[in-house]
Every structure is written in C-alpha cells, then in structure tokens.
Amino acid sequence: MMIAATSFAYALKALVAGSIFFVWVVRYQNIVEEFKVYGLPSWLRDLVGILKLSFSLMLFSVDLKINILGSSGIAGLMLAAQITHLRIKNPFYKMVPSMSLMIVSGVITIISFQNL
Questions:
Q1: Buried b / exposed e across 64-98, counting CB within 10 Å, b at 16+?
Q2: For a Cys-Cys bond, which of 4, 40, 65, 94 suits 35, CB 3.0-4.6 Å?
Q3: CA angle (59, 64, 70) in 5-degree steps
Q4: Can you give the pLDDT of all 116 residues of the chain as single tens digits?
Q5: What is the domain range of residue 16?
Q6: For residues 81 and 97, what is the distance between their CA atoms, to the nearest angstrom?
Q7: Closest Cα to residue 112, out of 66, 79, 55?
Q8: Which 3-state string (H, E, C) describes 15-61?
Q9: Could you give the C-alpha distances from 56 to 49, 68, 91, 93, 100, in angstroms and in order?
Q10: Can you tell me the distance from the alpha carbon of 30 to that of 1, in angstroms, rounded to the nearest whole number?
Q11: What contacts 11, CB < 8 A, 6 or more positions away?
Q12: For residues 34 and 45, is the Cβ–Cβ distance under 8 A?
C-alpha cells in the first residue's frame, strides 16, 4: 500500500511542480499583467514567485519534513490566491487553478505526514 501511495504522491508532486514552473517561468508575462490588473506590487509578485518555485523544489527532497514544508507552503500560497480572487470578485473559473493546486498540495501534505 505504501508503494502505491508513494507513487501517487510523486505523480501529484510532478503535477504541482510542473504547473508552477509552467505558469511562473514559461508564462511569466501573464503573471506580470495579472498582478498589475489586481493592483498588487511587483515586489510581492517576485516574492510569491520565489516562494512558489522554492516550495516546488522542496517537493522532491528525500526529507519528508522538507516535503511537508514545500507542499504546505504551496497550499498556503494558493489559499492566499483564493482570498485574492474572492476580494477582487473574479468569476469561479479563474479560481479553479489555484483551488486545484491548493487541494492537491494538501493531499501531498497528508501523504507525507503518513509516511513520516
């Protein structure tokens, strides 16, 4: 059972890390524009990007405590994104990506805790 959970967790980690890398590296210009539209400062955009990419790398550490830090960090940032979307009154479809990453990161956190 643990092998199946571990394989499932690796797949989820790859999904989360790949998504974050794609959005914050490949499509970075969209992030720049989005933060401008939301009236958020560029220093916050840069801090969020550094944190997201750092937390994504932590998902692949052999130390489960670092995995937990990475996945819970991503979940926390995605919760902040949800709050921002709600404050700005974005339509639901714009909230789905961050909501999905928040849930998946939470699942990774739970699996990592169980494997400690």
A1: eebbbbbbbbbbebbeebeeebeeeeeeeeebeeb
A2: 40
A3: 35
A4: 566 667 888 999 999 999 999 999 999 999 999 999 999 999 999 999 999 999 999 999 999 999 999 999 999 999 999 999 999 999 999 999 999 999 999 999 999 998 88
A5: 2-114
A6: 10
A7: 66
A8: HHHHHHHHHHHHCHHHHHHHHHHCCCCHHHHHHHHHHHHHHHHHCCC
A9: 11, 11, 27, 24, 15
A10: 41
A11: none
A12: no
- Whether residue 22 contacts residue 30, with contact meaning beta carbons closer than 8 Å, is answered with no
Q: Which residue has the tokens 């937390």?
A: 55
Report how far residue 9's alpha carbon sits from residue 23's, in angstroms, rounded to the nearest whole number: 21
Residue 84 · residue 30 · CB < 8 Å: no
Q: What total number of domains does the chain contain?
A: 1
Question: Is the CB of residue 51 less than 8 Å from the CB of residue 73?
Answer: yes
Token couple for 2: 């643990």
Measured CA distances, 45 to 4, 14, 15, 40 (Å): 37, 23, 22, 7
Q: Is there a contact between 31 and 24 (Cβ–Cβ < 8 Å)?
A: yes
